[in-house]
Structure formats: C-alpha cells, structure tokens
Specification:
Layout (H helix, E strand, L loop, with lengths): L2 H7 L1 H21 L12 E7 L5 H16 L5 E9 L2 E8 L5 H13 L11 E3 L9 E6 L4 H17 L4 E8 L3 E7 L1 H6 L4 H11 L1 E10 L2 E9 L4 H5 L2 E5 L2 E4 H4 E7 L6 E3 L2 E10 L5 H18 L1 H4 L3 E7 H31 L2 H24 L6 H30 L4 H5 L1
Antiparallel strand pairs: 1-3, 1-4, 2-3, 5-14, 5-15, 6-14, 7-12, 8-9, 10-11, 13-14
Length: about 425
C-alpha cells in the first residue's frame, strides 16, 4: 500500500501518529541543548616553541624552519605558515576539512619528537583553536578590601564553590595581588661571612618540606608517615640556621630580611576604573552553556545569602555571560521563523481566498517543525543559529510544497473526481 493511499484510508492511524510526533517533539524541545553554533572542529594546529633570549632571525633559522620541514610532510596538510618573534616561534598548520584532528595531532607530535632542536629550547607545544574552550562567564570581584584579600577570597572561597558545580571544568583567577614572600639578602654581609648563596638557597629548600616518610605498621594497622615542616610565618623563615662561624650560629635574619609582599603583576583587571579580581569560568566539553550558566547564577545567589558577612563590602559582578548572547541570538532566529511562517500564512490566504486550504497549510507548518525537534534530540543536534536557520528555510519549502500539492488535488477535483480519489 502506497504512503498516500495509506494516509487517506487509515486516517485515524495517521492522526495518532501525528499526535504522537507532536507530543514527542514538544517534550524534546524542552530538553534540547542551546548553543550559539554547532560543534565545529577547525582543521588548524599551532606549534609553539619557546627559546628564551633568541633574536627573530635565529628563531627562524634554528627553530621555525626545522619545525616547518617536519610538519609539512604530514598527511592532508594544505599550508604551513609561521611567525618568528624574539624567543617565540609559531608554526600554523592548516589541514583539509574533514581531517580527523585527533590523529593529525598524533602525527605532528610524532614528527616533532624526532626533531633535534638546539639545547635550551623548550619542547614544542601543540595549540588547538576551539571556541568552546573560551570562558563562558567572567566574574569581577571588587570592593574596599585590599587586592591581596580579594585574591585570597576568590581562590579560597569562591573558586571551590564554582568548581563543584556540575558542568564547570575549571575556574581561573586573574588580577589582584598574589601573596609572595620576599627574601632580601645583604650580599656584602653574606660574603664577609664566607657563606655561598647556593648554601642559603639549599637551607631554605631543606627547611620547607612536605614529604612522605614511608609506612608504619602496628599489628594489623598500617599508618602513612609524612614529614611536615613547611613555613607558616615570616619569623620562622628568619630564624633558620644557614651556617656557623667560630661557634656562633648564623641565621637568615643576620644576612637578610624577610618580608611579606606580592608577585609581580602581569595582568590588571578593572571594573568601572576600579581594580578588581577576575574569575574566568570554563565549562566541560559536552556541557550545555546555557544550562551551566544558570547553575552558576543560582550558586552565586546562594553563596551571597549564606556568606554575606564573608564578602563584607566586596561585590561580585558578572562582566561577561556567553549564555545571554546565545539565548538572545537563538530567540531572535526563532522569532524570525515564527513571524515568517505567520506572514506566509496570511499571504496565502490573501491569494488563495480559501480558508480550508490555508488551514491545511497552517497545520502542516507547526506539525512538521515540532516533529523535527524530536529528530534533532534523537540525533544530538542542539538549538543553534545554524539548525534554526535550517528550520526557517524548511518553513518556506513546506509552503511551496503544500501549494503544489493543493493545486494538483484541485485540478483532479475540477475534472470531476471525489476528494479521496483526487488525493490519491
């Protein structure tokens, strides 16, 4: 039995199938992932090699040219381009679309392992561009507290809370002042006592340890022994013994000064001109951006309610939220598709002048679109600009095909056939 004949003779069965497709499609629509773009694997790899203190011309001759020669013979390579800067060499390898980048990375790594680079050059690092690896949200922490306190608050309190959220892969803290202990040595004094600098460094390393000490058995019980001797205060560092002269003990305080400071800053973040601490949040590879962003927002609200005193005068502000742009973009495309379908129905009614024919086409559009949502969910296709754009184009094709079918049925009816026979 042909599909058309089955549809006209088994109308109740077809109605049940259509109703089931609509129900499954509506349920699937609520569970579809929302992304800005579909998963795209860009066929490019960047080989970065650091060789500190080397001029661009030497980088080109010693690093870049050998790397280009090694990776240029890999299968499916289209073009290799490079940039040589002081101390840095970057070779960009472009592959043909459709290349399995996992195997391509293994091939390039194998070629680079055989490469003989100058002594002192770092091992080449493979960098892969993937827009999904960018942070989905950036938070700013600012207030009257010192930048050291804000940094500690972000690392010790806020970061663990965010990393425990389902779908969050990592949280990176930038800006602020990272605490660091500075040891300033009086070199003339150290030289007069005939104590080499490497001896002082060795003593600092020996006194600040946290190592395993083996195992201790007591009957059937077994205990792990650890050597815990880490510095806790500045005074403990100053009191370590670095040598002995004429029976007198020489401590670090005799030849230097230990102060509490901060690391040299490489990144400065500001919110409205005020220095702040930034928390960049990264999602897991298969996690949905919008869902993870909503969980983060809920977790931040709970954190502020439970630990309001801990924040003090500090404030958290969302300075970037990728999910907002995604939701707005997807909603815009979806609204455009709905408006386009509605306008198509209005134009059809004005030209056909037949409410019954217009109603048939009006039903075919939403039923087909909703049923497509179930197929998208089963095929693991997310709601994004590309998929919604395809649905918008499909609405236009549905209208065109519906008009063709209606005109064909109407022609047979004009010849005197019944509605059932004209349809077949």
């Amino acid at each position: 039995m042909k599909l058309i004949e089955f549809s006209t003779r088994r109308r109740v069965t077809v109605t049940m199938f259509v109703t089931a497709a609509v129900i499954f499609g509506m349920v699937a629509f609520q569970r579809l992932a929302i992304n800005l773009l579909p998963d795209i694997t860009y066929p490019t790899l960047t080989v970065r090699t650091d060789y500190e203190g080397t001029a661009p011309s030497e980088m080109e001759r010693l690093i870049t040219e050998p790397v280009e020669g090694a990776v240029g013979v890999v299968t499916n390579v289209i073009r290799v381009s490079s940039i040589s800067r002081p101390g840095v060499s970057e070779a960009v390898v472009e592959f043909a679309w459709g290349t399995d980048m996992d195997f391509a990375s293994l091939d390039i790594r194998e070629k680079l392992d055989r490469l003989q680079l100058p002594q002192g050059a770092d091992k080449p690092v493979l960098l892969r561009f993937d827009p999904s690896l960018d942070p989905i949200m950036r938070l700013g922490l600012y207030g009257r507290e010192s930048l050291v306190a804000l940094r500690l608050l972000a690392e010790d309190q806020i970061k663990p809370v965010l990393e425990s959220i389902e779908g969050v892969a990592a949280v990176r803290v930038n800006g602020g002042l990272e605490e660091e202990i500075h040891v300033s040595i009086d070199e003339p004094r150290l030289a007069s006592l005939r104590i080499p600098l490497n001896q002082l460094v060795s003593r600092l390393r020996q006194e600040n340890v946290n190592l395993t000490g083996g195992q201790l058995k007591d009957g059937e019980a077994e205990y792990l022994v650890r050597t815990l001797n880490e510095f806790r205060t500045v005074d403990e560092i100053q009191d370590i013994v670095i040598g002995e002269r004429s029976g007198a003990v020489i401590t670090l305080a005799d030849v230097g000064q230990v102060t509490r400071g901060h690391k040299e800053r490489q990144v400065i973040t500001r919110i409205n001109g005020q220095e702040s601490v930034e928390l960049a949040i990264f999602k897991e590879g298969d996690a949905n951006t919008v869902t993870v962003a909503r969980r983060i927002g809920k977790a931040l609200e709970d954190f502020e309610k439970q630990t309001g005193e801990l924040l003090g005068s500090a404030r958290m502000e969302v300075v970037f939220n990728q999910s907002t742009f995604i939701e707005q973009s997807v909603a815009e495309v979806l609204n455009t598709a709905i408006m386009g379908g509605a306008l198509a129905i209005i134009v059809l009614y004005l030209f056909l002048g037949n409410p019954k024919s217009t109603g048939i086409i009006s039903l075919s559009i939403p039923i087909s679109v909703v049923a497509t949502f179930f197929l998208m969910f089963a095929s693991d296709v997310s709601l994004n600009i590309m998929s919604l754009g395809g649905l918008a184009l499909g609405i236009g094709m549905l209208v065109d095909n519906s008009i063709v079918v209606l005109e064909s049925v109407q022609r047979y009816r004009d010849e005197g056939l019944s509605s059932l026979k004209a349809t077949n």
